[in-house]
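User: I'm new to structure prediction. If I give you an amino acid sequence, what do you actually give back? Let's try with this one:
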Amino acid sequence: MDEAISRGCASVNPARRLGLEESAPSEKVAWSDFEVDRVAVALAERSKFGWMHVTFLMGLYQAVRLRQSQIPLSRIDFRRRIIDYPSNRVKGGQGYSQPFEEWEDSYESSSRYILNQRVCHWRMDQSSFRNRRSF
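Assistant: Good question. You get back a string of structure tokens that encode the predicted 3D arrangement of the chain. For your 135 residues, that looks like this:
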């Protein structure tokens, strides 16, 4: 609205008179190991190669947000073990690079396996292409 006022399209901002107060954000509670295990197993059973499972694992191991996990495979350097997050995918608009380790645990056997699951976009495109051909 401030932009509209400065351009002469509006004379006042009616939202300023609402008297709304800012509230403090609620405290976030970390998941227990049991909860993390439960979600990991459920997502693996539901769709091991699906976007939710891959995004969950990237958040768990790389501490990325949902939007950050939507990066092309070309931004992942497996030889140097670095993920390059572009600025348009990072909160705050400042891209950065982050090293990753080989993840050896009960969820998956290697980082290459986990990160390669981003091909789910390709699979989704292929399935929609097949559905169009069936009409």
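You can read the tokens as a compact description of the fold. Here is one thing that stands out. Residues 104-111, 118-135 have pLDDT under 50 and may be disordered.
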